[in-house]
Amino acid sequence: MNSKSVVMKWLYPFFILLLSTQPFPGRAQNLPDKKQIVEKMELANAYFIKKWPDPGKDIITDRRRPSNIWTRAVYYEGLLALHQIDPKPEYLGYAVQWGEHHQWGLRDGIRTRNADNQCCGQAYIDLFLMDPKPERIQDIKASMDSMVNSPKIDDWWWIDALQMAMPVFARLGVIYEDKAYFQKMYDLYIYTKAFHGTNGLYSLKDHLWWRDKDFVPPYQEPNGKNCYWSRGNGWVFAALVRVLDILPSDAPHREEYLQTFREMAPALAAVQRSDGYWNVSLHDSTHFGGKELTGTALITYGMAWGVRNGHLKKEKYLPIAVKAWNAMAAHSVHPDGFLGFVQGTGKEPKDSQPVGYDQEPNHDDFGVGCFLLAGSAIYAL
Fold first, then answer.
1. Element of type H or E holding 138
2. Which of 23, 151, 280, 285 could anchor a disulfide with 289, C-beta 3.0 to 4.6 Å?
């Protein structure tokens, strides 16, 4: 054996070891350690807080909006998930300042039925559970009570609403031991699922959701397939996770939520990109195709939670979730914490385009929230 062969034989085991740790597309990847996960979460969060040192400051894009709208509320969902992992006083203080600035109120007041306005209640309730001051929960409770006491059930005509409001109903039902909240949540949910848009916004065939009645068949993507928006389906997937994480094991309709979650998982897994992300259009990769963080983060959040809680098979779904997280951590997070590939507000693939590594979305808050939720679920694994 010549000297070159001897050297190669000696180096071979180290070469194989090196290969086994590299995140190549199309192969299983390693779950990062907790420190690495938290570092990425903290970096993205620090960038956001530095940009918005005053948590009560109005958000100005095409117009001025108060900072208790849904985009900022989703950020606080993520911040409080980070706080559970790394309970720094500054995280809690930043969230409390936000609630106090708005006097723990809702945009458009307690009579609002708009789920986007009620999303802030998720953070308010979590902060109430940490420090049960009545003012933290009274307005969101009053708003949901007005819906519980009303026969109207067609409010959630867009699927984003499920993530914005379902966890609020679930949390209140647990706190007050009142199944009326669970029942109203289901009535609103099932109307969205089975009746809005004539036959409901959930495809029993594809196990994905149309964003609203404007996208049900015969509306199609350029390739002739149904239009399923990544973030919209991510909102539903995340809503089911957050509700299932709250509901008691014997709560009514829990099994139906779990069944839908389990149906969606393989439908989403089947359309993951080779680089770990999901496209904005789930069934047409050529329609504004490319990396997109928010839908990817919400799907990752759901799959990681499903694996950890035994609702999804680890052998299949853990590699999918890890690949997605590793992709976001490597390719979306800038050195300063800015998040790239975030699609701004909208309701379909063409909205808030272009989406790119250096492209700043019209709202920079909910993308951070989605990323922090994904990180919290990966960390829990």
1. helix 138-148
2. 285
What are the tokens at 152? 């109207």
User: Which DSSP string corresponds to 92-117?
Assistant: HHHHHHHHHHTTT--TT-TT---HHH
pLDDT for 29: 83
**How many alpha carbons fall within 13 Å on the CB side of residue 56?**
11
Distance in Å from the first CA to the final CA of the chain: 47
In 3D, which of 300, 284, 283, 291 has the Cα closest to residue 355? 291
pLDDT for res 14: 39
Strand partners, 220: 226
Over residues 344-373, the mean pLDDT reads 98
Asked if the bond preceding 53 is cis, omega within 30° of 0, the reply is no
Nearest CA among 238, 348, 340 for reference residue 291:
340
How far are the Cα atoms of 30, 101, 169, 206, 230 from residue 321, in angstroms, in the given order?
A: 11, 37, 28, 21, 15
Residue 274's contacts (CB-CB under 8 Å, 6 or more residues apart) are 25, 26
> What is d(CA 341, CA 338) in angstroms, rounded to the nearest whole number?
10
% of residues, the chain, pLDDT over 70:
93
Let me know the angle formed at the C-alpha of 83 by 260 and 376, rounded to the nearest 5 degrees: 35
Quick one: average pLDDT of 323-334?
A: 98
Closest C-alpha among 208, 200, 324 to residue 266: 208
Burial 216-245 (b: 16+ CB within 10 A, else e): beeeebeeeebbbbbbbbbbbbbbbbbbbe
90: CB partners within 8 A, 6+ apart:
none
341 close to 297: Cβ distance less than 8 angstroms: no
Which residue matches tokens 């969230």? 95
Q: How large is the C-alpha radius of gyration of the chain?
A: 21
Question: In angstroms, rounded to a whole number, what is the distance separating the alpha carbons of residues 170 and 160?
Answer: 16
Task: Return the amino acid letter for 24.
Answer: F
For 59, the enclosing helix (H) or strand (E) is strand 59-60
Q: How much helix, strand and coil, in percent to the nearest 5, is found in the chain? A: 55, 5, 40
Helices 293-308 and 314-331 sit at what angle, rounded to 10 degrees? 150
